[in-house]
Design brief:
The complex is a heterodimer of chains A (118) and B (362). Chain A is α+β, with helices and mostly antiparallel strands and 118 residues long. Chain A is built from 2 helices and 11 strands; from the N terminus they run E-E-E-H-E-E-E-E-H-E-E-E-E. In chain B, the strands form 4 sheets. In chain B, strands 13-16-15-14-17-18 form a 6-stranded antiparallel beta barrel. The termini of chain B are far apart. Classes of the chains: A alpha+beta (118), B alpha+beta (362). At the A-B interface, strand 4, strand 5 and helix 2 of A face helix 3 and helix 8 of B.
C-alpha cells in the first residue's frame, strides 16, 4: 500500500531509462515476466547506509510495491522509511555511474553516491 | 550503583589484595607489590583478571558481513577459530571503539574496550536494518584472564598442555586447563605477548590457582597500567575515542585499504593519500623533576603542540612515562617538549607507537 501526504503518493520512483536497464538485466538473468527490482538499505558504505538493488520476480509479503514503466519496484518495509520519495535513475555514458539514487531523506552522501546518512 | 565484581573477587580479597573502582568494577589494584608485579609482566609472565573487558555475542548469518561494512579491517572471511582487530569508525572517520572480532563457531565474539559495550551494541543496532544479526552483552557470563609477558606463551602452553605455535594474533583455540574448558585468544598487548583465557565463572578459581601454582603470579590494575604506558598501548577514554582518527592513533595496521567501503572510509583514505594527519600519538618520558597530569599542555619552542593523554610513574625507579597527541611537525622521536604551566619539566618523545605495526593492509 502506498503512503500519501497531501494527496501525493510517497514511494520510490524509477525513471524510464532505469526501468529499461532493469528489464535488460532481468532478461540476462532469464527473468522475462513479472520483472521487478527490490530496493533496500543496508548498514555500511562511507556514510553509514548504503543502497542495495536486486533484480527479482519474487514479491514478498513485507514489500511495498509500485509498478512503473513495466517494472515492479519492491521496497521492504524496514527500508521504506529511508527511501520514501527516492528516485532511481540511470546515468549513462563514458563517465556514467550506473543506477543513481536521488534520496530526499539523505542528509549527506559519499563521493560515489552509493552511501548516505539520514 | 553497586560496583560489578568478577567471579574471582572473593579469591583476590582472601589474598589481601587492594581494590579500587575502575570502569564500574571493584578491581584488584595490587596483589603483592607493584614492583614485583611489573617485573613479572616485563620479564616473565603474570595473570590479570580482565573480566571487566567488554564481551559481546553476535549471532546471525550477516554478522561478519555487517561488521565488515562498518569497520576498518577485513573481517568478512574469518573462519571459526580466526579473528582480527578492527575499528568501528564514525562517518567522520573518528574512533568509536577498537574491537577484537573472533569467530568462535557458534557466534562472533566481540571484545570491546571496558565500558564500551553498550555504545558498540547501539552502533551495530543502528545499522542493522535488513540484516540477520542480534548482539548482546555477555560480559558477565564468563571470566576473562589475561596472561601477559615475554614468557606468557610458554606459560599458557604449559598450563593447557597444548602448543600455540600456529595461533596468529586474534585467533583462538579451545583447550583444557585444570580440568576446565578454556578458550585461548592470542591478543598481544602492543609489543608484549598476551593471551586471553575465557572460561565459565565456576572454572575461574581452579584455573587461577593452577596458573599461580605454575609460577604465574597475579597482577593488578596498577602494574598493568604501568606496563600499558611502558609499551605505549592506547586505551579507550584516554587515547581512543571520537576525538581521534585511527591514523593519528597509530592503528594503521588494522585498516584494510583495499577491502572497500565502510563507515568513515572516504575520510580515512583521503587523510592517508594526502598525508593530512594533523597530529600523532607519541610515547613520552618525563624529566625527573617533572610534575604533570593528564590533559596538561605540551609546548615546543613556546608553542602549544599537544596534550598529555596518560601519565604514570613506573615502578622500580624507571621514571615517569606517558602518552600524548602531538602536532605532526613536533612528533619526532628524540624531540624534547616543555610542559606548560601548571605543569613543569620536560617530556622527551621516545616513540610513535603503532599498535599493529607501521604497515598498512592492502
Amino acid at each position: 500500500m502506498a503512503i500519501t501526504m497531501d494527496g501525493v503518493e510517497l514511494g520510490v520512483k524509477i525513471s524510464e531509462l532505469a526501468a529499461t536497464k532493469i528489464k535488460y538485466f532481468a532478461d540476462k538473468q532469464g527473468i522475462e515476466e513479472n520483472v521487478g527490482v527490490r530496493v533496500s538499505v543496508k548498514g555500511g558504505g562511507c556514510s553509514g547506509l548504503t543502497y542495495d538493488l536486486q533484480i527479482t520476480d519474487q514479491e514478498l509479503e513485507s514489500d511495498k510495491t509500485i509498478e512503473q514503466h513495466g517494472v515492479k519496484v519492491m521496497v521492504d518495509k524496514k527500508s521504506y522509511i529511508y527511501l520514501v520519495g527516492t528516485e532511481l535513475e540511470f546515468s549513462d555514458g563514458l563517465n556514467g555511474k550506473g543506477f543513481v539514487f536521488t534520496n530526499p531523506n539523505a542528509k549527506t552522501s559519499c563521493g560515489c553516491g552509493t552511501s548516505f546518512s539520514v | 550503583m553497586a560496583l560489578r565484581r568478577s567471579a574471582l573477587h572473593p579469591v583476590a580479597a582472601a589474598t589481601g589484595a587492594a581494590f579500587q573502582e575502575r570502569h564500574g568494577w571493584d578491581l584488584a589494584t595490587v596483589y603483592s607489590t607493584v614492583e614485583e608485579e611489573y617485573l613479572a609482566l616485563t620479564t616473565a609472565a603474570g595473570v590479570h583478571d580482565a573480566s571487566y573487558t567488554g564481551r559481546l555475542r553476535a549471532i546471525g548469518a550477516d554478522g561478519l558481513d555487517l561488521l565488515n561494512r562498518l569497520s576498518t579491517n577485513k573481517v568478512l572471511d574469518l573462519q571459526p577459530g580466526q579473528g582480527a582487530p578492527t575499528i568501528l569508525t564514525t562517518a567522520r572517520g573518528r574512533i568509536l571503539d577498537l574491537i577484537g572480532v573472533v569467530n568462535v563457531d557458534d557466534y562472533i565474539l566481540l571484545i570491546t574496550s571496558p565500558g564500551a559495550q553498550q555504545q558498540v551494541i547501539d552502533w551495530l543496532d543502528k545499522y542493522t536494518i535488513m540484516e540477520d544479526l542480534v548482539v548482546e552483552d555477555i560480559t558477565g557470563e564468563s571470566t576473562m584472564l589475561s596472561v601477559l609477558g615475554p614468557a606468557s606463551k610458554a606459560a599458557v602452553e604449559s598450563a593447557a598442555g597444548t602448543s600455540l605455535n600456529e595461533l596468529p594474533p586474534y585467533h583462538s583455540v579451545t583447550a583444557e586447563m585444570a580440568g576446565h574448558q578454556v578458550r585461548i585468544v592470542n591478543r598481544p598487548f602492543g609489543g608484549l605477548p598476551s593471551f586471553d583465557l575465557l572460561m565459565d565463572p565456576d572454572a575461574s578459581a581452579g584455573v587461577w590457582d593452577h596458573l599461580s601454582k605454575s609460577g604465574v603470579p597475579p597482577v593488578g590494575e596498577e602494574a598493568l597500567e604501568a606496563v600499558r604506558l611502558s609499551y605505549a598501548v592506547p586505551a579507550y577514554g584516554h587515547e581512543l575515542g571520537e576525538s581521534y582518527n585511527p591514523l593519528e592513533a597509530g592503528l594503521i595496521g588494522s585498516i584494510d585499504f583495499a577491502k572497500g567501503c565502510y563507515i568513515g572510509q572516504e575520510v580515512i583514505a583521503r587523510l592517508d593519500t594526502y598525508q593530512k594527519i594533523q597530529k600523532h600519538l607519541v610515547r613520552l618520558e618525563f624529566s625527573a623533576d617533572a610534575t604533570v597530569s593528564e590533559g596538561d599542555t605540551l609546548n615546543d619552542d613556546g608553542h602549544d603542540v599537544g596534550k598529555v593523554t596518560s601519565v604514570t610513574k613506573l615502578p622500580n625507579g624507571l621514571g615517569l612515562v606517558g602518552m600524548a597527541y602531538v602536532r605532526k611537525a613536533s612528533a619526532s622521536p628524540g624531540n624534547v617538549l616543555e610542559l606548560a604551566d601548571p605543569s613543569s619539566g620536560q617530556a622527551e618523545i621516545t616513540a610513535l607507537p603503532h599498535l599493529f605495526g607501521p604497515d598498512k593492509i592492502s
